[in-house]
Specification:
Elements: H1 2-11, H2 15-22, H3 31-45, E1 58-61, E2 68-71, H4 73-86, E3 99-101, E4 106-111, E5 116-120, E6 123-126, E7 132-136, E8 146-150, E9 156-164, E10 173-180, E11 183-185, E12 208-213, E13 217-227, E14 231-235, E15 248-252, E16 258-269, E17 276-282, H5 283-290
Parallel strand pairs: 3-11
Antiparallel strand pairs: 1-2, 4-5, 4-8, 6-7, 7-10, 8-9, 9-10, 12-13, 12-15, 13-14, 14-17, 15-16, 16-17
Helix pairs in contact: 1-3, 1-4, 2-4
Length: 291
């Protein structure tokens, strides 16, 4: 019974595994036929499972083979055990899913004392050093030292360059995060896939632009005017929500391809409080300043 079970186990393997152990039949796909033939031969030679002599020869005719195949019972058992044992060898572990960062991801800034705030990633790329980088709003980094944690994957990075101009100056507001070499950048958010690489389109007044934030989602409006050296104002968008800062601002070309042109900063109210604008900073300027 043990012998028959071992042979049945051997028969579940590809024939090449059996051939490696026995040095016999080398035709792929005959393993089940091989096992069945040997079981039949053993049953015929010793119905009660007992052989009179240890050197007793057992002969089997394998379907598809021109010649008879002969082995000692001990050889058959050894082969069966070897092949069955190979079943215990574990298959290689499945490759771990890569850790990725993308535009539109939520990132938490966790200070050394444990307090946290969150923003949105605006643009990602892989540096010449192989590290994954993300650009977000500079004001997403507080005055206290800390680390950045991408919410969904747990990828950890640190701000390596931050430039924030004084309020209402229209100047830069950018932060560069280094996530290290073990993180992969992916130019796709949950709702849109962005063009990878290539020149950043110019920003023009009157353009239709969209932005994505982890708090409010996706919204589109129009570029109303430029503000200072780096920023632009938008209309026709709902009020900005905390957490949206740093998210991607993009235009869509005639082919339907989305191109990131800016980093969302929030909103600005006119001096008389009668008008409210969305506000974003130029990605082209961010790349010039930070990289």
């Amino acid at each position: 019974m043990i012998l028959r079970r071992a042979l049945l186990s051997a028969g579940t393997l590809d024939q090449r595994a059996g051939a490696a152990a026995a040095g016999r039949i080398q035709h792929q796909g005959h393993s089940a036929v091989l096992a069945a033939a040997w079981i039949e031969a053993l049953n015929n030679a010793a119905p009660n499972g007992i052989f009179a002599r240890p050197d007793h020869q057992v002969t089997a005719r394998i379907s598809g083979e021109k010649e008879l195949v002969t082995m000692k019972p001990t050889t058959v058992v050894t082969t069966a055990i070897a092949v069955a044992a190979s079943l215990l060898v574990q298959a290689p572990a499945a490759a771990a899913m890569p850790i990725t960062i993308s535009p539109g991801d939520r990132i938490d800034y966790v200070t050394d004392d444990g307090s946290a705030s969150f923003c949105t990633t605006g643009y990602v790329y892989t540096g010449t050093n192989g590290h994954a980088y993300a650009i977000t709003a500079g004001h997403c980094q507080t005055d206290e030292s800390g680390r950045v944690v991408q919410e969904s994957s747990g990828a950890t990075g640190r701000f390596v360059n931050t430039v924030v101009a004084p309020p209402r100056s229209g100047g830069p507001d950018y932060g560069l995060i280094d996530f290290g070499p073990r993180v992969t950048t992916r130019p796709a958010a949950n709702v849109v896939t962005f063009a990878a690489g290539g020149p950043t389109p110019l920003i023009e007044v009157g353009q239709t632009v969209c932005h994505l934030g982890v708090s409010s989602g996706r919204h589109c409006g129009t570029v109303a005017y430029s503000y200072g050296d780096d920023q632009f104002m938008t209309t026709d968008m709902p009020a900005s929500v905390p957490g949206d800062s740093g998210g991607p601002v993009w235009v869509t070309d005639d082919d339907g391809q989305a191109h990131i042109i800016g980093i969302w900063l929030g909103e600005k109210t006119s001096a008389d409080a009668s008008r409210r604008y969305g506000r974003f900073a130029s990605l082209r300027a961010a790349l010039d300043i930070l990289t």
